[in-house]
Fold this protein.
Amino acid sequence: MTNASLYKSHLETMDRCLADALERAGAKGLALEGVLFHAGRAETYHVDDKEIPFESTPHFRRWVPLSGPEHVVLARPGRRPLVVRVNPRDYWYEAAPVAPSYWQESVQFAEVADFAEVAGVVGPLSGVAYVGNSPAAASELGIDVTLVEPEALMKPLDWHRAAKTAHEVALVEVAAQKAAEGHRVGRKAFEGGASEREIHYAYLQATGQLEHELPFETIIALDAKSATLHYHTKRGREAAPGKVFLLDAGASHEGYASDITRTWALPGVDPVFVELLEGVDELERALVAMVTPGRPYLEIHQEAHRRVAALLAKVGVSKASPEETLELGISRPFLPHGVGHHLGIQVHDIGGRQATPDGGLLPPPPEYPYLRNTRTLEPGHLVTIEPGIYFIPMLLEKLRESAAGARVDWALVDRLTPCGGIRIEDDVLCTPAGARDLTRPLIQGPRGA
Ligand code: GLY
Ligand code: MN
Ligand code: MN
């Protein structure tokens, strides 16, 4: 299928989702005819005229791949979306014409020089809700404050974001290709002795992304720093070369994100750490295969702990049996984050803990409070699977003092702590036929492709 036909069929799905959301809002007493999605208003830092890097409202972005602030999409079920691009006549910033692209033939398109002109193009907005970051913009369009992101509308809209259309999957696949190239080059730089900062520059160059275009700040960690889950420091040559390398980094394409992690160890690294590394790579593949329709995502998280507990027992970090290791909670300080999350326009895509299309929360169990996704998987859901094993001193101290601490081989833990941590992460699409790993075919893991 061409980009244009994928997008056309994406808009058909969007229309159905919108109609469903409006119906659900109507059932709660909120009668709406349409929604005005606003790209959003740019903001500056506190007491500064420096602009905060602008990110479009994700719900706007799902309708149209237009970057920059102030544009709107007026969406009404059964009608072509009306896209109004705001392109100020300005000599401070570039005011370029919109580049011809696949999406334009499927929408009504207009361009204005100022947000004040939008109202004249979209016409009367009675019964239209506003979605965006600026109640002031809504008011400028004459939309009542009660219709700014009303919960009865937002919950079903958020819910529908989880299932990606083929158009969205195609965009993530391009984002994945860019990130995979960055990972290949990043690994080479590490093997050549580069510092965290140098690897970061190599990654940017290879992905062709500027810092502000990345979906999240790169996590580039050598040795013990790989145990800091979101390590952002990026040390220079004083901390290079390293022997263990964790790279958690993605790329963006037309507003959609990829999110990949690989961990590598050079020859000479403690063989038990290497065994753990290969074990995490192997168990990650088993967890990826669990991304199937009808499966509660929590089951994958629980299986991750079962397998991590078994691996810790196998290599001797835990002196208890695999079952006891799990029951005593020994795996928890070694894997202190959720096994993954929804992925899409936002890296941690919205709605992961939503109980129903109409709202309500499905909280994670108390022993795993950080799990971001508690939904049941459906075809089209796109999630990350990212198990890990880390030697995090502040968590290990607590384990050492607890009753379960007696079942841990602390001499071995102390030996492995300077190696840091391990995480392997892929982006996985749930399809009617099972899991489709979008990223593993692009970038191998420590045990190969
Ligand atoms: N890169 C952040 C995450 O993996 O969730
Ligand atoms: Mn992730
Ligand atoms: Mn990640």
Remarks:
- The pocket of manganese (II) ion (ligand 3) is lined by residues 248, 259, 261, 425 (CB under 6 Å).
- The chain has two domains: 3-160, 166-437.
